[in-house]
């Protein structure tokens, strides 16, 4: 198995916050730019699952079709992520990140003006291109900027921004649906999704291209050539690409099967109102946020692979309990914390892991393809859960597809090497 370098840096300070106090100014600027971008990205994505019940009611859409909109968004994001990863290798990480943020902000705003479900479906698909591209460019950018001994915690802490964005979306839902009628509130939810465009101003002023990427791109340009977009499917790197894609498929398939449909599960099978479900979602989000931070520490302390194996097993246990046991609403509220914790925490190791698996000249393409291949296949899960829920309970449908995903996640992660502490180097 090939990684980006055989050199491994020692990890002296393994505390959760130790990485931040020792970061340089450029590292901190990149950290906050990527964390903010990922938070706003998460807010944009989670808006649709939160308004899906309103869309179903207003436009008389069945659950399978409603889930299809989520699936189409994720499928488009898979294509956008691979394209953005390749673009990041060609024109730079920072420039690609700026383009993707502007793209998904624009189409989130346009979703607010959709006049029927078909228009919304198309606009969500177009939003997906930028949504997928933002992660690909941002994950490579911070992975290359942060020193190896802090990479797991820094990239993992950036990943926790997703929970912050999710929380922002839930707070916006609670406020807007309390102040406005549903037929107006859902449109304002999408309108606030244009806020990420403001982040581009910060990126342009303060965030610089990683030196290792700039050096590699300069060498390739000087040699008069460029790497093919298909280079990640050739030679020894092919095995890495396949296994990393399966890891990404399992981790995202499980996550989307759960988080996309839990709001609907609470309002239908648990008979909670939209506002009443906010507390349950808040517990899930808090668990998710803590899971990201603990996962970030775990990734540097025990390794990326150990994180994946431990958290996938934990997720399986909690999903079974959450969906299959006859729990009271109070117990379900309590169980939301470990559900969010295990179903999110493993993402903290994903960005650093994929960064360390690929050489610099192929890092954007490899990381962009693998993560977004997983996102594309995982995109089928919201649709399949919605479709299956028409013949069984939504709880059973969520459980079935989440368990399948986590078994795949565990097996593929077990087959890959540990990459903790890998030092990245410029290559040709």
Automatic annotation (TrEMBL):
Transmembrane regions listed in the UniProt entry: 31-59, 65-84, 96-115, 121-142, 162-180, 186-207, 237-258, 278-299, 306-325, 331-357, 369-388, 394-416
PROSITE patterns: MFS, SUGAR_TRANSPORT_1, SUGAR_TRANSPORT_2
Source organism: Rhodopseudomonas telluris
S-adenosyl-L-methionine listed as a keyword: no
Entries under InterPro entries matching the protein: MFS (IPR011701), MFS_dom (IPR020846), MFS_trans_sf (IPR036259), Sugar_transporter_CS (IPR005829)
Alphabetized Pfam families for the sequence: MFS_1 (PF07690)
Subcellular location: Membrane
Keywords: Membrane, Transmembrane, Transmembrane helix
Domain (Major facilitator superfamily (MFS) profile) ranges: 30-420
Protein name as it appears in the record: MFS transporter
Highest taxon above the source species: Bacteria
Membrane topology of this protein: Multi-pass membrane protein
Record's keyword annotation contains Repressor: no
Chief site of localization: membrane
CDD domains linked to this entry: MFS_MucK
């Amino acid at each position: 198995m090939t990684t980006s370098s055989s050199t491994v840096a020692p990890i002296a300070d393994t505390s959760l916050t130790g990485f931040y106090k020792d970061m340089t100014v450029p590292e901190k600027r990149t950290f906050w730019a990527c964390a903010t971008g990922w938070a706003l990205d998460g807010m944009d994505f989670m808006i649709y699952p939160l308004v899906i019940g309103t869309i179903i009611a207003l436009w008389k859409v069945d659950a399978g079709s409603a889930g299809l909109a989520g699936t189409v968004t994720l499928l488009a994001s898979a294509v956008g992520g691979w394209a953005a990863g390749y673009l990041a290798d060609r024109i730079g990480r920072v420039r690609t990140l700026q383009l993707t943020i502007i793209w998904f902000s624009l189409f989130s705003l346009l979703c607010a003006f959709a006049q029927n479900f078909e228009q919304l479906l198309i606009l969500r698909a177009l939003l997906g291109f930028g949504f997928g591209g933002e992660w690909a460019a941002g994950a490579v950018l911070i992975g290359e900027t942060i020193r190896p001994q802090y990479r797991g915690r820094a990239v993992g802490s950036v990943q926790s921004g997703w929970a912050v964005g999710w929380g922002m979306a839930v707070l916006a839902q609670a406020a807007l649906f309390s102040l406005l009628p549903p037929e107006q509130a859902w449109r304002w939810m999408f309108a606030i999704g244009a806020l990420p465009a403001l982040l581009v101003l910060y990126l342009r002023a303060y965030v610089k291209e990683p030196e290792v990427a700039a050096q590699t791109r300069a060498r390739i340009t000087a040699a008069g050539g460029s790497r093919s977009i298909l280079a990640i499917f050739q030679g020894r790197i092919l095995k890495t690409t396949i296994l990393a894609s399966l890891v990404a498929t399992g981790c995202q398939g499980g996550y989307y099967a759960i988080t996309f449909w839990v709001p609907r599960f609470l309002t239908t099978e648990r008979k909670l109102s939209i506002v009443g479900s906010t507390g349950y979602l808040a517990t899930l989000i808090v668990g998710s946020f803590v899971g990201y931070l603990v996962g970030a520490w775990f990734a540097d302390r025990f390794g990326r692979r150990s994180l994946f194996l431990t958290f996938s097993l934990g997720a399986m246990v909690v999903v079974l309990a959450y969906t299959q046991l006859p729990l009271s609403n109070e117990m379900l509220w309590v169980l939301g914390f470990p559900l969010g914790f295990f179903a999110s925490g493993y993402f903290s190791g994903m960005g650093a892991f994929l960064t360390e698996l690929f050489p610099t000249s192929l890092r954007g393409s490899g990381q962009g393809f693998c993560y977004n291949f997983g996102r594309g296949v995982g995109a089928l899960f919201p649709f399949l859960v919605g479709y299956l829920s028409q013949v069984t309970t939504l709880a059973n449908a969520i459980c079935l597809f989440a368990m399948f995903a986590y078994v795949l996640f565990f097996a593929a992660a077990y087959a890959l090497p540990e990459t903790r502490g890998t030092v990245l180097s410029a290559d040709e």
